[in-house]
Amino acid sequence: MSAIDIVSIGEPMVEFNQTRPGEPEYLQGFGGDSSNMLVAAARQGARTAYVTRIGDDEFGRKFLALWKEEGIDTRSVGIDPNAHTGVYFVTHGPKGHAFSYLREGSAASRLRPGDLPHELIRTARFVHASGISMAISACACDAVFAAFEAARAARAKLSFDPNLRLKLWPLARARATIGAGAAMADYFFPSAEDARALCGREEPDAMIDWAHALGAKAVLLKLGSDGVVASDGARRERIAGFNVKAVDTTGAGDCFCGAALARLAAGDGLFEAARYANAAAALATTGFGAVAPLPRPDAVHRLLAST
Predict the structure, then answer these.
(1) Which of 5, 135, 155, 248 makes an SS bond possible with 265, Cβ 3.0 to 4.6 Å?
(2) Which of 147, 109, 111 is nearest to 127 (CA)?
């Protein structure tokens, strides 16, 4: 099997995104943080592969078509005839966007350590998962840690986004499990909102101190429209956000992760990759849905050149 830049483990979900607040019109798209991240990385030129399970249903087949179109390796996508592909709905209002999920018992939640493609993981340069990848079930959590152990043994770099979802697990369990994932991570991608809930700190520098204290080697703290703070443990850099016409922030953090990993795989340093990913994530907010607005490199370079 040829080398892969980025392997992602997690749950894809079909998305129905409300296009106008209060109106019963929804745009069907694709979501799931681990899938979004891979599409973002693939659009930046990275060689990518997905480890997941989908239902033997029309939504699962739509995902397979999407990943094929995006050039994502799907040889490690299992098809479960006894479980469904996950679905979620996004609504928009004065307080931003809100999510409603139909994911209990999804095919991806049935992923087990025995399902892992060890040869693929051994050839990967980066192996990525998130807190959601762990929270959807105990066996999926075991699979993520097993994949991380296999990747670390093969000297792959580990990437982890906490993506805290308290509807999936209690905060105490999330703190313990995400802390264990962060301790293994070469690249840790918390949002300020997630870090605040997990460590109880308010200032970005304090959040980064917490993340490094867990064991994370490099930290990329996502600040939404305010940009990002990147730290390698010796140096920190705050990168300002971009002034764009944002209409939907769904998937912007996933875009940041994918673009950053793609640039790291291409040879960029941490801070250069963070600046690029910051621009890509800003562009991802200018359209509806988690996947459709994910940018191509030419658009990212244009935005970077405009500053």
Answers:
(1) 5
(2) 147
- Its sign, for the CA torsion 250, 255, 256, 257, is positive
- pLDDT value at residue 289: 83
Whole-Å CA distances, 27 to 20, 195, 263? 10, 31, 30
Using CA atoms, how far apart are residues 243 and 136, in angstroms rounded to an integer?
A: 35
Predicted pLDDT of residue 20: 75
Mean pLDDT lowest among 114-118, 175-179, 273-277, 287-291? 287-291
Tokens representing 10?
A: 């997690």
The number of C-alpha atoms within 13 Å of 110 and in the hemisphere containing its C-beta is 17
DSSP one-letter string for 66-122: HHHHHT-B-TTEEEETTSPPEEEEEEEETTEEEEEEE-TT-SGGG--GGG--HHHHH
Q: Which residues pair with residue 7 across a beta bridge?
A: 49, 127
Q: How far is CA 186 from CA 146, 158, 212, 232, 260, in A?
A: 16, 5, 10, 10, 13
Distance in angstroms (rounded) separating the CA atoms of residues 85 and 306:
41
289 closest CA partner among 26, 23, 12: 26
Cα–Cα dist 133/12, whole Å: 10
- Domains located in the chain, CATH noted: 4-305 (3.40.1190.20)
d(CA 13, CA 106): 9
Closest by CA to 221, choosing from 242, 194, 252, 251, is 194
Beta bridge partners of 118: none
Mean of pLDDT values over 293-298? 97
Mean residue pLDDT across the chain: 95
The angle subtended at Cα 75 by Cα 74 and Cα 81, nearest 5°, is: 85
3-state secondary structure of 159: strand
Percent of the chain scoring above 90 in pLDDT: 85
CA separation for the pair 125, 6 (Å, rounded): 6
What pLDDT does 22 receive? 74
